[in-house]
């Protein structure tokens, strides 16, 4: 391992990780620079933020290392006499292509192929220092000149905009450096090129490097807009062009600063390391043009290197995120949408007004149109302040050049969710970490006793129904949660949280165990999601390639999903074969079966309409269609059913379809939330500056176990016979036999006409307090309390404050019920100790809501984010990907359509729109 880089570096923040958090925002700003430059130039596509115009590119250059290379510089591939293949790109530095005769900075990028996958990208410009001392100054400078086409307008913009971001002295230095460095060049073959900052050179320590011209055939002067290319082409046609690669060694932080890239390393001699040779050739041939196109698509990045040659300094550290973002944006793999200035200003103004109004009248008590605008402002605040990247590395790491996305991953979803974001293949995939909406609560207290909390506050005394919903709505949200989230647990008995039981109570922790005085709950095995975070139907299709293949016909190669007489098959141990089969019961089985049949119906329609489609394309297209249809049903039907207000009806329709045809509402949304005008599926992916993931807080607010009844009545529509069963009778391994006896249509009808439980205290189903799962017996009421604490989700009052809601000061603000109030006061020392799951259930919801306003805040943020971040629900939600038939299937489809298609006898029974999740006739 080379000498530690920490010896030479000083971080902008408490440590390197704190510094990294700012780099992502700088990278986003540089993508906006690309957009502005594209707009100014009138180009149809996004180009590089800088060095947009390629002057010359070759792949057959060679770096010949000196035979007498000093011992301490002999590192990695730099061995005496080595000849290393090099790819070279010369360019003009401007962010928009302009004539070679224009004053500009010139640059060169080298990709040194070091053997195997290892490369070293060396980037240089023909001025000894950077105009900016660090990344913050550099981005401020780039942003100030973005979209400016003339030198005068750029200088004026710098003079006006830079002082407030970097100060007057830095502004003068930056403008002075730019004036000196942006000049005309007669020949790129005769320029010197200098590194931006230092790199580590093994144990020799930091160095800066440059290319010094040594051999260049003489040619007559060239003119015209491509004069520099013409000049270089003539020189290469006449002979080799050669440069010496030279280094300056670090002396001290005073004489040779690592962090300040605006200062020269004066009075430090250069030592030659190797000679770069561009061989004689004709760069005007078709082959040469093809090479140039190939090189132009490369993403050069100084972090494409090895640890021995690690880039150093703040500007270099920022370049990894910046270059990756810029390259991905240029290749249409990452997107950015600039928020109009009017939106920023109006949100600030309107946000302050609503903040005052909400002290007296919460958003849900305002008139519908005002409430809608209030929610738009609140959602923007949550996006800016309540998304935390938990997967941020502790330090900037070197890398190998990014792999090209596989062709099949570009065209359709992958089994494990990778490559949804083509610039970050692991984002949101199976195994990605859960995010956070607020800082972690580090308390690990098991007080008050979660068993007593469950007994006194959660246990169902008598069934409290939710009269506006049906049990299908309860099954639906579990069906969705199985698509979104699943923590890995340690095997039963391997690692557990042990809770001593009060009094003489005993608990059988496993089906074959003996009663104990301790309740054992299997601990989480890490904080990574075992299903993909994307809204991709993984509960139907599985979250890994093996499971996906297992569920398909013809040994995993067929287009259709495997069904036996229209039902899901079972595998070893009588476990149902489905994308997700944990916590299995009849309601889940009905929905899993229904949408497996829907997949097969889409396959049949696609192959009839497009006979040329093979089975793989048919399967993948059907998966896209069914997943999008599920997302649409949840957005515009289930959500307005459980949040039954006019405001939420409109809000969820806006998310999917765009603003209603009311000029005042459209105007307000256009000013405050431009995404909402046309609907999220008609926009581009936007992660709001934080890589997409579902969060631990999201998991918490979807703990909706009180929805599950303990008793069910199944009616035979042919005979009128009623069959009453308990939850235990229709769950676990008993499920499939009972489901086949009752049938899909009768199951749906019976679930569709019955009420679920209300999401409130004292309504946790008895059946789930003694629930068998994978050989473990659990009390899910206790588990809900313990898991939320152990995962670092803040307690209820801190949870509210983290979502910009007022804290409560008295238990009486949670409940007026004397018995509940007494239990809260007996269990909790203060209101600040109330468990989040308890507070969410105790809170009185807004009128028409099925759950609390506090839980709704997380929903408001994450529900639109699941759509907005997903490539297949935004930029790739189009006929070329889904087929015209697939787009029409989603556009026309609804829950009622799916039910009627597969159970036509229910055509006159199932409700339409949000009524599909209200009690049927």
Automatic annotation (TrEMBL):
Record carries keyword 4Fe-4S: no
Named cofactor requirement(s): Ca(2+)
Pfam annotation, one family: An_peroxidase
The organism's place on the tree of life at top rank: Bacteria
Molecular functions per Gene Ontology: heme binding; metal ion binding; oxidoreductase activity, acting on single donors with incorporation of molecular oxygen, incorporation of two atoms of oxygen; peroxidase activity
Keywords in alphabetical order: Dioxygenase, Fatty acid biosynthesis, Fatty acid metabolism, Heme, Iron, Lipid biosynthesis, Lipid metabolism, Metal-binding, Oxidoreductase, Oxylipin biosynthesis, Peroxidase, Plant defense
A Gene Ontology biological process term: defense response
Key word Nucleotide-binding present: no
PANTHER family: ALPHA-DIOXYGENASE 1 (PTHR11903:SF11), PROSTAGLANDIN G/H SYNTHASE (PTHR11903)
Protein's name according to its UniProt entry: Animal haem peroxidase
């Amino acid at each position: 391992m080379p000498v530690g880089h920490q010896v030479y570096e000083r971080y902008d923040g408490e440590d390197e990780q704190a510094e990294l958090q700012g780099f992502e925002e700088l990278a986003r700003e540089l993508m906006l620079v690309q957009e502005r430059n594209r707009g100014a130039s009138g180009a149809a596509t996004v180009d590089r933020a800088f060095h947009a115009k390629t002057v010359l590119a070759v792949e057959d250059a060679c770096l010949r290392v000196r035979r007498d290379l000093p011992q301490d510089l002999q590192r990695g591939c730099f061995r005496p006499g080595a000849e290393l293949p090099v790819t070279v790109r010369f360019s003009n530095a401007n962010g928009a292509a302009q004539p070679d005769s224009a004053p500009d900075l010139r640059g060169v990028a080298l990709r040194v192929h070091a053997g195997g996958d290892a490369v070293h990208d060396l980037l240089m410009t023909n001025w000894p220092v950077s105009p900016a001392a660090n990344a913050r100054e550099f981005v401020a400078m780039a942003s100030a000149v973005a979209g400016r086409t003339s030198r005068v307008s750029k200088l004026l913009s710098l003079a006006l905009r830079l002082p407030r971001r970097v100060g007057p002295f830095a502004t003068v230095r930056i403008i002075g450096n730019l004036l000196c460095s942006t000049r005309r060049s007669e020949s790129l073959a005769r320029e010197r090129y200098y590194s931006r900052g230092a790199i580590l050179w093994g144990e020799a320590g930091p160095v800066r490097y440059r290319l010094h011209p040594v051999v260049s055939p003489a040619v007559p002067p060239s003119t015209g807009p491509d004069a520099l290319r013409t000049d270089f082409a003539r020189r290469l046609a006449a002979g080799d062009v050669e440069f010496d690669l030279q280094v300056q060694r670090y002396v001290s932080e005073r004489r040779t600063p690592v962090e300040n890239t605006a200062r020269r390393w004066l009075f430090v001699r250069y030592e030659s390391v190797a000679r770069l040779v561009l061989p004689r050739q004709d760069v005007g041939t078709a082959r040469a043009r093809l090479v140039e196109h190939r090189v132009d698509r490369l993403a050069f990045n100084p972090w494409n290197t090895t640890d021995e040659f690690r880039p150093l300094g703040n500007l270099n550290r920022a370049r990894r995120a910046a270059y990756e973002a810029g390259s991905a944006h240029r290749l249409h793999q990452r997107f950015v949408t600039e928020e109009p200035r009017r939106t920023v200003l109006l949100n600030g103004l309107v946000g302050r007004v609503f903040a005052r109004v909400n002290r007296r009248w919460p958003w849900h008590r305002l008139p519908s149109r005002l409430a809608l605008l209030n929610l738009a402002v609140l959602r923007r605040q949550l996006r800016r302040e309540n998304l935390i990247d938990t997967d941020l590395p502790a330090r900037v790491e070197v890398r190998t050049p990014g792999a090209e996305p596989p062709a099949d991953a570009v065209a359709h979803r992958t089994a494990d969710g990778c490559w949804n974001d083509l610039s970050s293949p692991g984002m949101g995939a199976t195994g990605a970490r859960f995010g956070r909406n607020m800082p972690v609560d580090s308390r690990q207290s098991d007080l008050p006793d979660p068993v007593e909390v469950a007994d006194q506050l959660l246990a169902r005394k008598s069934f409290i129904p939710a009269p506006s919903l049906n049990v299908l709505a309860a099954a639906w949200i579990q069906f969705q949660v199985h698509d979104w989230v699943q923590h890995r647990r340690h095997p039963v008995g391997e690692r557990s949280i042990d809770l001593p039981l009060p009094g003489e109570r005993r608990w059988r922790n496993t089906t074959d165990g003996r009663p104990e005085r301790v309740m054992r709950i299997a601990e989480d095995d890490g904080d990574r999601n075992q299903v993909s975070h994307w809204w991709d139907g993984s509960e139907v299709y599985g979250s890994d390639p093996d499971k996906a293949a297992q569920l398909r016909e013809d040994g995993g190669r067929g287009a259709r999903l495997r069904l036996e007489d229209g039902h899901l098959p079972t595998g070893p141990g009588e476990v149902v074969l489905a994308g997700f089969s944990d916590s299995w019961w009849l309601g889940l089985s009905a929905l899993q079966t229904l949408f497996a049949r829907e997949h097969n119906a889409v396959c049949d329609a696609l192959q009839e309409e497009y006979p040329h489609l093979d089975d793989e394309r048919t399967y993948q297209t059907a998966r896209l269609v069914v997943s999008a249809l599920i997302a649409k049903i949840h957005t515009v039907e289930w959500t307005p059913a459980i949040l039954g207000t006019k405001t939420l009806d409109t809000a969820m329709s806006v998310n999917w379809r765009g603003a209603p045809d009311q000029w005042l509402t459209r105007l307000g949304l256009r000013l405050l939330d431009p995404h909402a005008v046309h609907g999220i599926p008609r926009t581009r992916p936007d992660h709001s500056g934080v890589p997409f993931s579902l969060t631990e807080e999201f998991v918490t607010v979807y703990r909706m176990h009180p929805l599950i009844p303990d008793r069910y009545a199944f009616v035979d529509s042919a005979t009128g016979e009623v069959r009453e069963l308990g939850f235990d009778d229709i769950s676990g391994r008993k499920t499939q036999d009972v489901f086949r006896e009752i049938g899909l249509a009768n199951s749906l009808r019976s679930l569709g006409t019955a009420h679920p439980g209300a999401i409130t205290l004292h309504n946790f189903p008895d059946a789930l307090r003694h629930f068998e799962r994978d050989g473990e017996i659990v009390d899910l009421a206790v588990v809900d309390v313990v898991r939320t604490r152990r995962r670092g989700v803040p307690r209820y009052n801190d949870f509210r404050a983290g979502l910009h809601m007022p804290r409560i000061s008295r238990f009486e603000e949670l409940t007026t019920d004397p018995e509940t109030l007494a239990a809260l006061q007996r269990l909790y020392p203060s209101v600040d100790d109330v468990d989040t799951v308890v507070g969410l259930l105790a809170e009185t919801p807004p009128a028409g809501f099925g759950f609390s306003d506090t839980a709704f805040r997380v929903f408001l943020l994450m529900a639109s984010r699941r759509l907005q971040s997903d490539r297949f629900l935004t930029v790739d939600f189009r006929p070329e990907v889904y087929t015209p038939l697939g787009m029409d299937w989603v556009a026309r489809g609804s829950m009622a359509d799916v039910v009627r298609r597969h159970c036509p006898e229910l055509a006159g029974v199932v409700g339409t729109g949000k009524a599909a999740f209200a009690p049927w006739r």
